[in-house]
Amino acid sequence: RSGWRGLIEEYRAYLPVTETTPVVTLREGNTPLIPVPYISNLIGRNVKVFVKYDGLNPTGSFKDRGMTMAITKAKEAGAKAVICASTGNTSAAAAAYATRAGLRAFVIVPDGYVALGKLAQALIYGAEVLAIDGNFDDALTIVREIAENYPVTLVNSLNPYRLEGQKTAAFEVVDTLGYAPDWVCIPVGNAGNITAYWMGFCQYQGEGRCDSLPRMMGFQASGSAPLIYGHRIMKPDTVATAIRIGNPANWDKALSVREASNGEFNAVTDAEILEAYKILGREEGIFCEPASAASVAGVLKLKDQVPDNGTVVCVLTGNGLKDPDNAMSNSEGGIKGGIKADLQEVARVMGFEP
Ligand code: F0G
């Protein structure tokens, strides 16, 4: 939509803000819903698959939707500093919006398990980055305690304003399609996003903006799938570091969403995630980060269950540029190097000259 003013202004009527709330925005939201014909064809039966490419938000992930609200409300409440635990994207978003609001941002990350682009963002936005010798779950435990005992506001998805902002992605899906899809496929870590999408669809249905509600289909990486195995994973592991989480903060909410939406949670292997990641790049021209590809891996895994003529939306939560290391190690055509700077020679390597 042209003249987009950011999601708080565009969806003000649906959000907990007043006329005097100091809106902190980078004009997030309004991300494209892109048809993916190659993936639709893999499923067949006239199923239409779209990706909600939330990697096109200002800091490159869906976290901006939650962060515009969380930082706006922190600012309104007079906070001077915010804190989060993060696998990378939350820290990038918190850092950017905190800077925008004139607040300090502390981010606690698992040392060695954050994609390079995300760390670079947190640093360039001026956050105070603390890398701990532990995983995301350890970091979250620490920041919860700190926020309880010191004058800093927690901006992880335990902060209810995060989910309020993130639910607007569901509004955009309905506004674009004109109806609610049959399935929404989402990568799940802490289960904040799947909870937020469901809130958004339910609210829109209540307002008469859509008739039906989707089934919420959540996907975790098989090495980090506590919601599928039904117990906490002490040493979560996956190539999709964004969702390397063994003890989801929104565990109970996730189970309620699954039940209320008649949804399903399933695990996808790292191999399936990387295959979907490569298909998106090579066949659709869409570059997401590995965690995001779990949504597409999921619909491909369950393709026989998708209803005939159905509409499926897969959420691509983060931009592929966040994780250059995985892109380099998982791309098929390597760089042809060592070529002389010579027209004939380049044409020969291209196969146009003998
Ligand atoms: N996809 C990406 C790219 C993420 O960064 C995350 C979460 C998720 C999916 C899962 O969303 O937690 O709401 O179920 N990243 C958090 C972070 C943990 O710190 O950036 P969720």
Q: Structural class, judged by helices and strands?
A: alpha/beta
* CA distance, first residue to last residue: 51 Å
Helix content: 40-55%
Bound molecules: ligand F0G
Tell me the strand order in the biggest sheet: 1-2-10-7-8-9
Q: List the helices and strands in order.
A: HEHEHEHEHEHEHHEHEHHEHHEHH
Broad shape? globular
pLDDT under 50 segments (min length 5)? none
In brief:
By secondary structure, the chain is of the alpha/beta class. It contains 15 helices and 10 strands.
Task: Looking at this protein, list some descriptive labels.
354 residues, alpha/beta, six-stranded mixed β-sheet, four-stranded parallel β-sheet, 10 strands, binds ligand F0G
Describe the structure.
With 354 residues, the protein is of the alpha/beta class. It has helices spanning 7-10, 37-43, 63-76, 89-101, 116-124, 136-149, 160-166, 168-177, 192-206, 226-229, 251-260, 270-284, 290-301, 324-330, 343-350, and strands at residues 33-35, 48-53, 81-85, 104-110, 128-132, 153-154, 183-187, 215-221, 264-268, 311-316. The strands form 2 sheets. The chain has a 6-stranded mixed sheet, sandwiched between helices. A 4-stranded parallel sheet has the order 5-4-3-6. Helix 3 packs across helix 7, helix 7 crosses helix 9 and helix 12 packs across helix 13 (290-301). Ligand F0G binds at residues 61, 63, 86-90, 157, 187-193, 242-243, 289, 291-292, 317-318. It catalyses: O-phospho-L-homoserine + H2O = L-threonine + phosphate.
